[in-house]
Amino acid sequence: MSRSKLFASLFALGISGSLFAQQYKVTGSIPIEGAGGWDYAYVDSANHTLYVTHGTEVQVVDLNTEKPTAKITGMKRLHGVATADELNRGFISDGGDNVVVVFDLKTNEILQRVKAGTNPDAIIYEPTTQRVFAFNGRSNDATAINAKDGTVVGSVDLGGKPEFAVSDGKGFVYDNIEDKSEIVKLDAKTLKVVSRWPLKGCEEPSGLAIDTGAHRLFSVCDNKTMAVTDYDSGKVVVTVPIGEGPDAAGYDADKKLVFSSNGEGTLTIVKQDGADKYSVVQTLKTEKSARTMALDPKTHKIYLPAAEFGAAPAPTQDNPHPRPPVVPGSFHLVVVSPL
To answer: Could you tell me which residues come within 8 angstroms of residue 327 by beta carbon, excluding any fewer than 6 positions away?
Structure first.
């Protein structure tokens, strides 16, 4: 059925055009070479580029063609990517080597390796201070790095295990603290925790997204819940049901939609009808293991890393809960597009 006929059918059923515009579908798959696990994906919309951390390398995907074009290699165990477009620099958190790897956005050449805390995981760029923040999962702190020259400015004790973080673009950074079920607010200039807010109704928050217009934070939680926090007051204003196993969130300011990528193989799509009013408008089937995501705010497409897994090896004393291996050649990106 064509888009126009489908729209007419929905209209005849009393379904508005605005609701139609909120619907998404899986539209493709992008094969990615290499073996091993993965973590975050990151869209640099200004440069039409998608970065995917995959084992020991970062895959660089051209979003105009939706094809891999380059690799950044020579690292150990990767987590996240951030970019400072005005400085032509990118940053990769290498948890296996406890460093932040600095690279050139045009050539993908590695420029520096900057010492961070233990197991740097989430990483973001804060534009007002031009600092990069790496959130260290085992040392429970954040390393602040001058994005211009790669020097370490200092560190911040977070008082718990950090997960994903976001910036409000005005000098403050917000981070989920997984083992405390709370959000911390950091002053990017003074490198101090200025607020610590409990996430009522949320267990083990991981992914985080931000709406700077309505001053809301969206934490996706292990108990199949999204907690919406007012970052002026620090209060959870509402919770929304999502799928199981979420690890990333996204917010589309143009469409007023919030997304949760769930490892069970679904993408929860939540409509924002007001600063404190949210409702699930679609639960889209993706693929099992598609727990992280990257949103392109220009095209409104979503990219979700996923793969097939083999049988888990037998438990050992050193590794009582072994993970199943990724089937070689099965890693790819699920492409989700608006109707």
So the answer is: 307, 308, 309, 310
